[in-house]
Amino acid sequence: MGDSNLKPKINSTDGKTPVLKQAELDYMKIIEQKNLERVQKLQQITKRNRITGCLIGAGVLGIYLYSINAVKQETFLDDFEEPVKVQQ
Asked: Which contiguous run of DSSP H or E holds residue 70?
């Protein structure tokens, strides 16, 4: 199908190691360098995403704790007295 564009496999039946051209070795080094840069960039993005997630989580937790504390401090119902019933 589309396999005609691929290079043939190197068979090393005679015990010799396959010899690569210098251009192929240079290309492999370039690809390895680009891949290393890509991995480092993804690691930086992952680190920033984790920091952002922790900050958002801390903000949500802070708002939750503040609202629980604010509700505890409300005392308007503590002084509530029932009205005196009028006897007839």
From this structure: helix 22-73
DSSP state of 80: -
Question: Helix (H, G, I), strand (E, B), or coil: what is residue 32?
Answer: helix
pTM comes to 0.55
Angle at 28 between CA 26 and CA 30, to 5 degrees: 70
CA 70 from centroid of its chain's CA atoms: 34
Other CB atoms within 10 A of residue 34 CB: 10
Backbone angles phi, psi at 62, to 5 degrees: -65, -45
Per-residue CA distances from 72 to 21, 66, 77 (Å)? 76, 10, 11
Q: Would you say the C-alpha torsion 43, 47, 52, 58 has a positive or negative sign?
A: positive
The token duo for 9 is: 């496999």
CA distance 59 to 53: 10
Q: What is the pLDDT of residues 34-66, one digit of tens each?
A: 999 999 999 999 999 999 999 999 999 999 999
